[in-house]
Specification:
Chain A is mainly alpha-helical. Chain A is built from eight helices and no strands. Chain B has a single domain, classed as Orthogonal Bundle (MetI-like fold), CATH 1.10.3720.10. Classes of the chains: A mainly alpha (219), B mainly alpha (215).
């Protein structure tokens, strides 16, 4: 047992901040992909012909029932297998994006169904096409109503982005591992990393609460 | 699809699935104990206990489970905690899921109608009797579904212990993907086994929920 000494962390501040930066990049990219693919999956499952809807439903079922870590391995090695040699960073973003798209789709599907049918009828009767009705009337309301759940998924996404360190992406956990390999001080560095995630999480939660409040006011 | 390969490696995966089940069950039990303690602390009359309970939930839910495992397993020896991977996995997952389950338990207790407490106090039940005979039996029913969701999350979350070299499903999958370069086949086997475990738990929760649901 050696004494704990958090001063070993200070020389690695830049490395850790670089890690924070990439964690933020991963989270934001993953969030954007998961948001739009979430809408796409939800709409496809509800309205697309069966040949499209059923495979997507199967994919959603598969991705909701298996661990993200396993999916990351599939995407990282699977893309190479089918001849797409993408860098680890892209595989990580795609993996996070698809995983959370499935959870967002699950929420949004319920949100779309919950939009009052009078809204659709109204839009259709003033001459909107089916696509226009979805795009301008139904989906915006569905997104607004499901915002708290989508926000929760985003908070989980931030934390789960730590997993992509396993496929070698240089984010926060990876930075810590690098520093630990030089200093042999896992406790100090992982506690520091935990604190950094906690702060990121706090910032994200505060931001989401702000957005929710604004949306609430604009109703 | 390379079916001969899938058949050849399948026995390894069954063994690994058993480890996943063991890890999940043990950490679920530990998580329930932790959750009961934390939920009691958060609902107690003492300000200090409430603060400790809130801090616990906030810290364990506000940081990645992966980091919690790393602190325990890699950082533990520095503060005199030496655990083998399996034990570290169970304790790490249990402490983490405990924070989530504490909220499910609290939610169940808060969900019991206030009038129930008032009525039982009026007919002369003590606070403890009210809790034990009136509130908890009803709250337990409300907890089934949220705790079930936690349990399913825990099974999927147990994949994390592969990173501290517990030979469970995801670890085995990673190893075989690396040695065979057949990611789709290997994923298929691991996914099948995860789905079976998750399905059994989800069904059990469904049955319990329907059996004991209020109304």
């Amino acid at each position: 047992m050696q004494g704990l000494d958090f001063s070993v962390v200070t020389p690695y501040t830049d490395l850790l901040l670089m890690g924070v930066w990439w964690t933020v990049v991963l989270t934001i990219s993953g969030a954007i992909i998961s948001f739009f693919f979430g809408i796409f999956f939800a709409v496809a499952v509800l309205y697309a012909p069966k040949v499209i809807a059923y495979p997507i439903r199967f994919f959603m079922w598969l991705f909701m029932g298996t661990p993200l870590l396993l999916q990351l391995f599939l995407i990282y090695f699977g893309l190479a297998q089918i001849g797409l040699n993408v860098p680890a960073l892209a595989a990580g973003i795609i993996g996070l994006g698809l995983h959370f798209a499935v959870y967002n789709a699950d929420v949004m599907r319920a949100g779309i169904v919950a939009v009052d049918t009078g809204q659709t009828e109204g839009a259709r009767s003033i001459g909107f096409g089916r696509f226009q009705t979805l795009r301008y009337v139904v989906i915006p309301q569905a997104v607004r109503n499901t915002l708290p759940s989508i926000g929760n998924n985003l908070i989980v996404l931030l934390k789960e982005s730590s997993l992509v360190s396993i496929i070698g992406i240089a984010e926060l956990v990876h930075s810590a591992q690098l520093a630990i390999s030089e200093t042999f001080r896992p406790f100090e560095f992982y506690i520091t990393v935990a604190a950094l995630y906690y702060i990121l999480n706090l910032v994200l939660e505060t931001g989401l609460r702000q957005v929710e409040k604004q949306v609430e006011v604009s109703r | 699809m390379d079916f001969p390969l899938m058949l050849r490696v399948f026995p390894f995966f069954v063994e690994a699935a058993w480890v996943t089940v063991q890890i999940s069950v043990l950490s679920l039990l530990l998580g329930l104990v932790v959750a009961a303690i934390i939920a009691s602390a958060k609902m107690s009359g003492s300000f200090v206990l409430r603060a400790i309970g809130s801090l616990y939930v906030s810290v364990f839910r506000g940081t990645p489970c992966l980091i919690q495992l790393f602190v325990l397993y890699f950082g533990g020896p520095q503060i005199g905690i030496n655990l083998d991977p399996f034990a570290a996995g169970v304790i790490g997952l249990g402490l983490n899921i405990g924070a989530y389950m504490a909220e499910s338990i609290r939610g169940g207790i808060i969900g019991v109608d206030r009038g129930q407490v008032e009525a039982s106090r009026t007919i002369g039940f003590s606070r403890l009797q009210t809790l034990r005979l009136v509130v908890l039996p009803q709250a337990a029913r409300l907890m089934i579904r949220p705790l079930g969701v936690n349990a399913v999350g825990l099974i999927k979350g147990s994949a994390l212990v592969s990173t501290i070299s517990v030979v469970e499903l995801t670890y085995t999958a990673q190893r075989f993907i690396g040695s065979t370069y057949k990611p789709f086949e290997i994923f298929g086997i691991a996914a099948l086994l995860y789905m079976i475990i998750v399905y059994v738990v989800a069904r059990a929760v469904d049955v319990l929920d329907r059996r004991y649901a209020i109304n």
